[in-house]
Structures are given as C-alpha cells and as structure tokens.
Amino acid sequence: MNNENRGRLTLPTDVDMVEETLRLKELLGADALRDCDGTNMPEALLESDAKIYATYYTTRKDNQWAESHPEEVQQEYLSSDRVTARGNSLRIELMKGFHRDQLKVNTIDSPKRWWEVMDRTTGQPVPAEQWEYDEETGEVVIQSIPYHQYTVSFLAFLIWDPVHMYNFITNDWKDAPHQLTYDVRQPKTQAYVKEKLKRWCQENPQVDVVRFTTFFHQFTLTFDDQKREKFVEWFGYSASVSPYILEQFEKWAGYPFRPEYIVDQGYHNSIFRVPSKEFRDFIEFQQIEVCKLAKELVDIVHSYGKEAMMFLGDHWIGTEPFGKYFKEIGLDAVVGSVGDGVTLRMISDIKGVKYTEGRLLPYFFPDVFTEGGDPIGEAQENWLKARRAILRSPLDRIGYGGYLKLANEWPGFIDQIGRVVEEFRQIHANSQGTGAYTAPFKVGILNCWGNLRRWMANQVHHALWYREIYSYVGVIECLSGMPFEVEFITFEELKEGIDPGIRVLINAGDAYTSWSGAENWKDEAVVCAVRRFVDAGGGFIGVGEPSACQYQGRYFQLSDVLGVDRELGFSMSTDKYNEMDSRHFILEDIEGEIDFGEGKSRIYAQGENYQILNMDGKYSRLVVNRYGEGRSVYFAGLPYSPQNCRILLRAIYYAAHREEDMKKYYVSHVDTEVCAFEETGKIAVINNSREPRKTDLYVKGEIRRHLDMAPMEICWVEI
Fold first, then answer.
1. Which DSSP string corresponds to 20-31?
2. Nearest to residue 473, comparing CAs of 386, 543, 390, 380?
3. Does 99 map to a domain?
4. Which parts of 545-678 are beta strand (E)?
5. Which of 75, 288, 409, 643 is deepest in the core (most CB within 10 A)?
6. Of 336, 280, 343, which Cα lies nearest the Cα of 312?
7. Does one domain contain both 586 and 457?
8. What is the C-alpha separation between 158 and 100, in angstroms, rounded?
9. What mean pLDDT comes out for the span 87-115?
C-alpha cells in the first residue's frame, strides 16, 4: 500500500482481536491503534509499527483510593422533586427518583452551609432555621406555608462514575465492578493523581499518545431509580462542585455562593437557559482552575516524551476549547465524536493544538450493531453531513471507537469504512493544507453564548436529535459546510460594535432561550444596533422566534426589520391582508414543497416592504423584507436537508446584496454542493444524496462542466 492510501486513521482493538486488527490495519491503512473503555491493548500489538493510543482516566479506575478518601469523591448538586405543602410542616425525600447506586447524599459537609431549601411559589430561599435534615429517613423537614411548593437543592456524592454507568448499561456488562469517581481538584487526590500519572508513564513506555478521558469534571449525567437517563446536559456544571471548590470560588468572586446558581430553578443551567452573571462567573472560575491543573498533567506526559490528547466528551467541563484559557493547557491534540457537520466543526475549528481527530459515529457498540440496527445507514448519513464540513474545516485525522469485533462481524461495514477513509485522504491530497474558497463577507450568529460555545449552543445532549430544536439546528448544520466564515457573537459584543466583515446576522430559536436571546431584546442598545446595521445595508436572517420577547405591543422586537410578527391573540382584532408571491431569487433552484420542520404558527407579515414567499393558510412561513438599505429574511423553521442548504445559501447571498458572487463556484442540483481549493486548482463536487444526480458546475458564473454523479459521490475537477 502506497503512502497516499495510508495514515490519518485510528482503529480500536481488543485482546482477542490481534490478528484481525493487524489485517484491518493493513487493509485500511491505519497508522494508529487505540484501546477503548472496558478493553485492554493486546501486548502483541505494542510491537507493531502503529502509533499507540492509551485511554487514561484521571478520575476513576481506582476504587481503592476513592473508598479510602470518601470526602474527596466527586459531588453533584441535585434538586429534589417539587412538593406542595398542605399544612405547616412538609417532609421531602431527597433521593426519590434518583438512582441510589449512582448518588449518595453528602452528610459529611454541613447541609445548612451548602444546601438550599427553595419556596418555588415565591422564588425565595427558606431561612436555614426553618428546616432540618433527618438523616435517618433521608428527608428534609420544612416549616412550610400551606399550598406553597418547595424543593431542596443538596450535594450528593457520585459513587458510580456516570460514564462507566452509561457504558455498563449500554453494553450490558454483568461482572464489572462499579467505578467510583474522585475529585482531582482536592488536595490529597490531586497529589496522588500526579504521582500515579508519573508511574503510569514510566510503566508504559510503548504508549505514544496519552488520551485523557477527559480531565476532572463530568458533564451532568444523572440516572433515575430505573437506571434511565434522568437529566443529561453536555455543558452542565452541576457535577463540578464541592465545598472545597466553592470556598475557592467565593474568595475569587468576592461574594457568597448559592446552590441556586447551579440548580437554576431545576433547569441546572441547560444550554438553552440565558446564563446568569453568577453562572458565567462560575464557568470562568472553573475554566481558569481546570485548565491550570490540566496543564500540570500534560506537562508530566510531555516530560516522558509522549503526546497528550484530550477527548472532547467525558469529564470535559472546564476545558471548553473555545474558552480563553484552553490554549494554556498545551495539549497536542483533541479528539471527539463526529455525528454530523456541527459536531465536526466544534472539533476541527479548535486552535492551540497540533492536530484534531474525529471519532466517526456510530461507535462499535451493541446498541447499534444489533438485530434491527442499521450501522451502515447511520455511517453513511453521518458521513454525508461530516464530509461537507471537512471540506470547509478539515480534521487532521479520523478514527472509530468501540469494539472492533462488532464492526468486523457486520456484513459490509468494513467496506463502508474503507470508502470513507479513501475520500478523507482524497480531500487532504487535493487540498494540500490550503483553505477552501469562502465568500468575501462573514456571517454572524447572534446568541447568548457567542464564541465560548462555538458550533455548540444548539444542543443539550451531544449530537442527538430533538424534536423541539431540529427546526433551528438545521441553520448551523447547513452553515457547517457552506462557503462562509462564521462568527459567533454575544449580545454584549453586539453592543460594542459589529465586525465590519460581517454582512449578515442570524438569530434563531425559540423565544426566551439562550439561542434566541430572551430579555436581551428589551435592551435598546441591542435593537438599535441591529436596526442601524440593517438600515446601513446589512442583512438579517431570523428563524423561528428571532428577537422574540413580549414587550411594548410587539412579540418580535425587530418586527420592523423582519417584516413579520407572531399573533399571540393580542392583535386578532387588527386585520391582516397577507398574499403570497413566490417569485424570488431565494427560490429559483427550488422545486416542490419546502420543509420548515415544526416551524412556528401564526406568523403574519406587516409593514410596507415585505414579500411573502411561502404561506401556510393565511399565515406566513418565508418572508423577505426591505429595511432602509438592508434586507431581511424570515423562516418559520429550517431543518437540515440539502434543499434547505440551498435555500439558506441563496438567502444569505440575497441578504448580503451579493447575489452576483453566488455562482463563482456553484452547482445546479440542490442535492449537490461545490468546494473550491484555488491554491491547488482543485474543485470538489459532492452528491449529498444516496441517489444518482445530474448537476452543472459553474465557475465564475459560467457552466464549466455537466456531471453525472453516483450516489454519495465526491468528484474532483480541475479549476
């Protein structure tokens, strides 16, 4: 096998897969091998010419230490069920609905100091002298007000590591002991873990890459009493707390910590919540401290001549890679799971590392590789989305995770891997490290998180589909593979001034979420900044409930810019005379129905400068509007599909007043896309469907070539 057909690929292995691993390594041209959770690297493979990755756990796989230091086991803030009082005394069972094998109430540290009883009817904390904890029954006894509702926010020890518990349940492990999870931030454990890492590096000279999984704090993954996931928040900081950490935070922040800053009315600071100042402070503090300590472990690894890699997944809280402090860790690489274009870009866009690597889904786990499963279909669908993004922002490497035996025994799956790897190497061979052509202007995404959670702010549970958000997730999924430089900006940054390179702003999502902006739209500085931007010739695209916040007789605070508002029942007495005219630049390529997903109902056009391109009965779903020198486009929803990518592409060029630039590199069929590498003279045309497609390739506005494309094909053309 020549060098063009080798490299850039990592395969998982296991102790009973030595010969098959070597065969597949040669067949697929893999240059690296890795172990996986619950497996061990076979000794026989350590002598191969492959780069050896070893999974390293800083927080678990040492029950002896955890059991001998129970006070330094990791902790999590939990919130009890809401219970309504019917008298002057109320008892709340803390652990009701939680899995007692995973969590145990912390009775070591003072409940009066670190817990909080909340009157959810008034929104106020109950004074500490008005409640007591009955350790014998596991209940909090409250002096209550009849018919008020109460919760208890309390600390619990994580006596079963959430990731190990997930793997245990998913893979139906029977005999594996439950792994405790200890807190590396605390003094005794911190010193122990550093020395342990040194010993491990000494004892494993064959290991080239130490893959930290990840560092210290697990995202919030809480199970219920039936071993089902109860609460999952990939960005959750609820499990990064302890009295030790919180006392440090108080000194740093200069004010007392409240459990409510984490519990957040029971939402536990979901990514869709508008973050409070206190929660932002806590994130900042944790990132400073976590990155500082992570650097110490990375320095140890480097001192033994090994590379340090971080898994962007488990125990990653505090190491958010687009935060201010991440680059200080000094990591060689980041690896993460890739299920679509968005999850790919959140890895490939990371700066401050030598290389990035993606674990392509599906994992080789029995939940997919089973009767009724469709691992090949999943792999194809994921690759079609990921490939678009790779062309725009390439990963350096790809790989797979899980149990190689499952993949090897599934008919046709290895062939699918082979096709993916070949195309990935082709992209690198034809791009030669150069960047793809991008339009001569930027697109800005406006939300509450900005660049801190670049490509991330649309999800709760890593890369999983949610009915409630798919109509908006499609926006950034489309953008992940488009020819635009994308900036993510906060409302605070907006008020400071919009980057002059940005020609189009996008605001999307449900009202009152962090993605849409909620109360930020009551801020005159915010609405005036956007109006000024559009009035001067900028573009604004809104999806779902952009600028939504009921205030001063309007639901969409930028209804004048958008040319639409939403009927909430307040203005039904005002007649609306909406008529559709679908003749427009945005829809020139589009045939058949447009998919708006769940969309939004009762959207009506208003003003003097709108044009309705699509309607649902008497209400509108796609509207363009002129505002001063600028333009806006409103979508009721925009789930990902190749056709919707094309609609959004055209909408962006239209909103930017740059229609003439769109066909510099362009393909006619909506299921196809084009990506040009001008420095190497190569153009990639991709078929994003599983059907054959005919498409015309445009270069500088002229048809250059007609292409008959096979299903899922990538075709390379000389410029």
1. HHHHHHHHHT--
2. 543
3. no
4. 548-551, 554-556, 564-566, 603-605, 610-616, 619-627, 630-635, 665-667, 672-677
5. 75
6. 336
7. yes
8. 10
9. 95
Residue 584 has pLDDT above 70, yes or no: yes
What CATH code is carried by the domain that includes residue 323? 3.20.20.80
**Residue 75 in contact with residue 239, Cβ under 8 Å?**
yes
Residue of 398, 373, 375, 402 whose CA lies nearest to 387 = 398
Task: Identify which of 436, 356, 453 has the alpha carbon closest to the alpha carbon of residue 398.
Answer: 356
205: number of Cβ within 10 Å: 11
Domain assignment present for 121: no
In this predicted structure, what is the pLDDT of residue 382?
Answer: 94
Amino acid (one-letter) located at 110 = S
Assigned token pair, 527: 């609405």
Distance CA 528, CA 214 (A): 43
Which residues carry out catalysis?
314
662 in Cβ contact with 646 (< 8 Å): no
447 with 333, same domain: the answer is no
CB half-sphere exposure, 376, CA atoms < 13 A: 14
Domain stop point among 411, 431, 451: 431
Q: What whole-number distance in Å separates Cα of residue 161 and Cα of residue 333?
A: 25
Q: Where among 431, 466, 500 does a domain terminate?
A: 431
Instruction: Give the three-class secondary structure for 589.
Output: coil
Across 70-168, the runs of DSSP E, i.e. the strands, are 75-79, 83-84, 89-93, 103-105, 116-119, 124-125, 131-134, 139-143, 149-158
**Residue 569, in any domain of the structure:** yes
Q: Are residues 505 and 365 in the same domain?
A: no
Res. 577 pLDDT band, cuts 50 70 90: confident
Cα–Cα distance, 290 to 296 (Å, whole number): 10
Distance between first and last Cα of the chain? 29
Residues 626 and 679 in one domain: no
- 419 and 458, same domain (yes or no): no
How far apart CA 98 and CA 238 sit, in angstroms, is 15
State both tokens at 542. 């809104």
Tokens representing residue 300 in the block = 């140890």
CATH number for the domain spanning 690: value is 2.60.40.1180
Look over the chain and give the mean of its residue pLDDT values, rounded to a whole number. Answer: 94
Containing structural domain, residue 412? 3-38+51-58+185-232+284-431
List CB contacts of 228: < 8 A, sequence separation 6 or more: none
Name residues whose C-beta falls within 8 Å of residue 576's C-beta, 6 or more positions apart in sequence.
Answer: 567, 604, 605, 606, 618
Q: Position 669: which residue type?
A: H
Q: How many domains does the chain have?
A: 3
> What's the sign of the alpha-carbon dihedral 386, 387, 393, 397?
positive
Q: Which residues pair with 515 in a beta bridge?
A: none
- pLDDT bucket at 1, cuts 50 / 70 / 90: very low
C-alpha–C-alpha distance, residues 35 and 401, integer Å: 8
Q: Which of 275, 263, 652, 255 is nearest to 452 (CA)?
A: 275
Q: In the structure encoding, which two tokens stand for residue 566, read together?
A: 């939403």
Render pLDDT for 18-46 as a digit per residue (tens, 0 to 9).
899 999 999 999 999 998 766 678 888 88
222 contacts 76 by C-beta, under 8 angstroms? yes
Averaged over 584-610, what is the pLDDT? 94
Place of tokens 């409510």: 260
Same domain, 592 and 694: no
Pair 499, 488: CB distance under 8 Å: no
Shared-domain flag, residues 652 and 671: no
Lowest mean pLDDT among 276-290, 457-471, 574-588: 457-471
The reply to whether 156 falls in a domain is no
Rounded percentage of the chain residues whose pLDDT exceeds 90: 84
Residues 298 and 378 in one domain: yes
Residue type, 275: P
Whole-prediction pTM: 0.94
The two tokens of residue 19 are: 């010969």
3-state secondary structure of 98: strand
